[in-house]
Amino acid sequence: MDATTFDALFERVSNWGRWGANDQRGTLNLLDDGRRLEATAAARSGQVVSLAHDLDTVSGPDNGRPALHYMTQQADVGGGEPRVNTDFVGFDFHGKSVTHLDALCHCSFRGRLYNGVGSADSVDSRGGHFGTVDQLRDGVVARGVLIDLPRAAGVGWLEPGTAAGPDDLVAALAAQGTERRPGDVVLVRTGHRRRRAELGAWDPSNLSAGLAPEAMAWLHATDTVVLGSDGDSDARPSGVDGVESPIHALALTAMGMPLIDNLNLEDAAVACSAAGRWDFLFVLAPLRIPGGTGSPVNPLAIL
Amino acid sequence: MDATTFDALFERVSNWGRWGANDQRGTLNLLDDGRRLEATAAARSGQVVSLAHDLDTVSGPDNGRPALHYMTQQADVGGGEPRVNTDFVGFDFHGKSVTHLDALCHCSFRGRLYNGVGSADSVDSRGGHFGTVDQLRDGVVARGVLIDLPRAAGVGWLEPGTAAGPDDLVAALAAQGTERRPGDVVLVRTGHRRRRAELGAWDPSNLSAGLAPEAMAWLHATDTVVLGSDGDSDARPSGVDGVESPIHALALTAMGMPLIDNLNLEDAAVACSAAGRWDFLFVLAPLRIPGGTGSPVNPLAIL
Amino acid sequence: MDATTFDALFERVSNWGRWGANDQRGTLNLLDDGRRLEATAAARSGQVVSLAHDLDTVSGPDNGRPALHYMTQQADVGGGEPRVNTDFVGFDFHGKSVTHLDALCHCSFRGRLYNGVGSADSVDSRGGHFGTVDQLRDGVVARGVLIDLPRAAGVGWLEPGTAAGPDDLVAALAAQGTERRPGDVVLVRTGHRRRRAELGAWDPSNLSAGLAPEAMAWLHATDTVVLGSDGDSDARPSGVDGVESPIHALALTAMGMPLIDNLNLEDAAVACSAAGRWDFLFVLAPLRIPGGTGSPVNPLAIL
Amino acid sequence: MDATTFDALFERVSNWGRWGANDQRGTLNLLDDGRRLEATAAARSGQVVSLAHDLDTVSGPDNGRPALHYMTQQADVGGGEPRVNTDFVGFDFHGKSVTHLDALCHCSFRGRLYNGVGSADSVDSRGGHFGTVDQLRDGVVARGVLIDLPRAAGVGWLEPGTAAGPDDLVAALAAQGTERRPGDVVLVRTGHRRRRAELGAWDPSNLSAGLAPEAMAWLHATDTVVLGSDGDSDARPSGVDGVESPIHALALTAMGMPLIDNLNLEDAAVACSAAGRWDFLFVLAPLRIPGGTGSPVNPLAIL
């Protein structure tokens, strides 16, 4: 895709100004109490599946800044009763390992964040002041829809480098018999982590399965609230001249739609297949990090 | 309360062996798909309220180990497009500031964890091997009940040092018109944070409002799944000879019931009062920290 | 001191251009192999005294961002022999607690660093590119001179708020019988830590003993290489209109002279007094932190 | 080497009891003011060479727990003048990357530390209480001797797996014309980092050049104070039945001799060769980490 075509797509999916010149919530505006209440009806069995991976403290090709986990005290010290075991955790969470949310201020495209705000004006050395994770303090409670691309394609996983377009998404939904609705959280399974489990880790920075840019037009037209994937939603190489992560630019910057990266969709895929339905009550509760660009998270699918 | 009386209470509320000699999930066993599905019916408006505080990076009397939040990269570096703003967060989260979950392995009473397992045998310098936060990987989805003690007492807050007994809890529920059910998550508001907001921070290690030990017998008898509070549930001074944190010992060690400390119940109190009901769908999703003793969290009340 | 007078003093002590337009080593240029070799002769007994404090992991009025120290492994884990005990340390080291070096890029005055370089052009979110601690990779080996102001004044300490001028420094040197030489590291004792030990910690951000701005002219004229103090060298309130830390601005920005803050000069004061001389071989070896603005340090006085 | 032979060697080089049953300083006892003063005479030109590497924040085969370096503030925030650039550094410093000191409590052999003290009794979850880095608070000031093994062997580096015995050390010293004296710090260059620079990083945990166990008898007989290397002094595979790191066990546990791992000896090798002498004033100043098992360091060779 050449730069001109990408720019036109950026304009087409842009939500700049849609909810006001000062809006910093983006597609979260698509949710209201009514839609949240409706979403609770998507829970029909009460089964819960975590959509996160265990935090990984071991470095590797896709985990260059491993999470920190240290005991800070054990019950071997302290005089009284009871005694405590305590620990420290630390995360440089963006990257290819930690299951995390990207807030809107995470992604600057040509110096701009969502709604046209300047990145340098909105994020300083102490944190962000616009489009931060604070906007998600009350979490995301919505109907979640899993789109299982490898299942539809009858493969174990999409090979790294594959970019799924809108037709692929629509076809997979049809194969599943899953309806899309405005206000959905859409979770796209590429099989990234199944491949990793079977073949070992690799560096997905330059080679990953994800979405084709055109897919964002469909997500925009269908009023998607949040997009998540078992990779980071971007296919690489991106196929777009001069844009390394077009999905990030289109989602976070143009649409104002948060992303969830590095989801664990393996357990959910099994559960959805067993249940014969791929929609559920989705709950995400980012940590309340003032000025944060995102958060490590453990999203839940309540079937 | 003398030691003998406390020991008898410990025995009375103990769940050791109740779900098998090897059980490490404790009161989470009270939840099943059916109860979770029922709990979704407690959401009746779709309003969501965060039950966490903003993470606090500034040290103070109740925050001796402040949370770390550092920018790790801004859009001022990097060659391609888009560019990113990223950050690091770190938490020594137990204590009196961070809203956090205590997993069962957090609390050792006389060398024992829940189910009689030795603390030194179950927690080493790399983390825990029993009763860790891993047991809560699929979160807690349950009916939540807020017990607003200051509201029932007609005061702004319970003075630090106050210990609420079972009669206080029952009376407050009656005043609210709230029914208790097996499988509930019980959240006890003492007004701790309202006092802090109005009078300033203090060190609650030695002076705090919370529950009287006898209240645990009621929580046990009513099959409570998780207990949370705007303090850490313990009143101090504890009033129990030789036991500084009797609620922690009774909940975590005897009952195998996780605790949530330092909740933000101010917004929920307002919302519940406005709605005229104090029950809701409660969702908690701890981070998946292998071997962790707990997790910073942002629990949600979905009214 | 009004702004005009301060600006004139800034010009008077400025070393901008003195060692070339591209220089980023500042007063370190005053040291060469010859002066270092001469400095070794200042060691006359072989007694060594640490000039650092123990790192403090407990927060307090002068330690709002306490150092982190966690065990990462103990000999309770691991299969083979030998087994190891290991730990993690972390420092947000600038501030009033950690004994640390300020590299030149630490201090921006009206947007400029030493030699007129723009701060925003030289320090980005990944670290500094000019005047960083890398310039001190080979340490500072020099003759050190302790100026013990409370000793000369016959007091336990200078009261916070006191600003010592050039006459005070010269008089204290004369009382000690200590000669000043070009290329010296000058360490100024105010008794800050003795006061802290006796009266308890306070927040020195707004109330501290240190140097008067005029003292910098003397340090400049005498070709001082590094200035250190048991406070952070600045007296506060500063007495300079619109400048909160004039010594930092004059030393780091104008002169290009590194500072060492929060030194432990109590042990050295005792040792020097016992030896009857206040000069010694001084060795400082900052950690090699690429792009760092300074380093926690443990400077040594070798008498 | 079989276990019996190793045990006999352990006994032969043991300093347990040599400086008293309660001693925790080990070979540091070999230094006194007189020897330190003599050591200053080893500085004959005033040239200083850092013996540390730059801290490495990028993970790799020999850097699984990369150092943390984050800006905590830049001059873009703050209202007054001057403004500051500040940063955070963190180290899980043991391992194969950071230049660091091993204090005696780092190494437990069959449950015992130096002088026969139990590791579990001396190190708890808060830190060590015996043989910690506190014992080195006044640093190590000594005559340093570089033994350049690749130079003597006429090779670029010793191949990983090579174990240098006492004859190799003595021969290299003779080739250099360097005399050994009691109280020396001995630095052994294997060329580890030159190999790394030319061939790329590898995991030295299982394949490294170092010393043969017998070399420790010579270091013991010659009253060596500290041993350092560009690896971690251990050759691997170790060649000793059931002992993975025999040099660590013999040095730290038996002899009570601190180790310095991951030294940068490349610059020093060039400087010593140019100077035609391989001895110098050596200064090491570990950070004052209470209860620490070691410290990241930047040792200096003052030629």
TrEMBL record, chains A, B, C, D:
Which InterPro entries does the annotation name?
KFase/CYL (IPR007325), KFase_sf (IPR037175)
Q: What highest taxon heads this organism's lineage?
A: Bacteria
Which residue spans adopt a coiled-coil conformation according to this UniProt entry?
none
SUPFAM superfamilies, alphabetized:
Putative cyclase
**Protein name stated in the entry:** Cyclase family protein
